[in-house]
Amino acid sequence: MTAEEYLEQRLDDQIEWYDRKSGSAQKWFKRLRGAEIVSAAAIPVLAAFTDTSGVIRILVAVLGALIVVLAGYLSLQQAAEQWVEYRATAETLKHEKFLYLTGTEPYNCEDSFRLLVQRVEGQISKEHSAWTGYVREGARESKPGSEVD
Predict the structure, then answer these.
(1) CA-closest candidate to residue 19, choices 76, 93, 73, 80
(2) DSSP states of 60-108
(3) 146: pLDDT confidence band, cut at 50, 70 and 90?
(4) Interatomic CA distance for residues 32 and 67, integer angstroms
(5) What are phi and psi of 108, to 5 degrees?
(6) Which comes out higher in pLDDT, residue 141 or 68?
(7) 3-state secondary structure 99-117
(8) Are 134 and 96 in contact (CB under 8 A)?
(9) Which residue has the higher pLDDT, 57 or 64?
(10) Does pTM top 0.85 for this prediction?
(11) CA-based nearest residue to 21, from 88, 121, 92
């Protein structure tokens, strides 16, 4: 594989993927956290009203349950963590690409393409390991009777 092919088929593809996933995780996190905040803020406001039909009591209970579900889902999906990790990985890959393209240290050497591949693949592997750790931790936390270290 040539340097141009690697940049186009692998590096640019990975930068785009991490960029897209970071944006998606950010949107989901902000939407769900926003719904959680609005629901929590609505409870005391609704509780201040008297209601002979019980509709407000039911609405307060539903909002309370919704907050629990949203908090649990946010914890399970780890959207905030993914947002930050994916953004960091995308920016690191962009940084490596620009250092390589400009021949800036550490790519001001004879074997710069090989070094680029090693560093890029190392960064991707590092991010995959972090993701695997999140998944394992989430699975461990969701098992009944499991303890988190």
Answers:
(1) 93
(2) HHHHHHHHHHHHHHHHHHTHHHHHHHHHHHHHHHHHHHHHHHHT-TTS-
(3) low
(4) 10
(5) -95, 45
(6) 68
(7) HHHHCCCCCCCCCHHHHHH
(8) no
(9) 64
(10) no
(11) 88
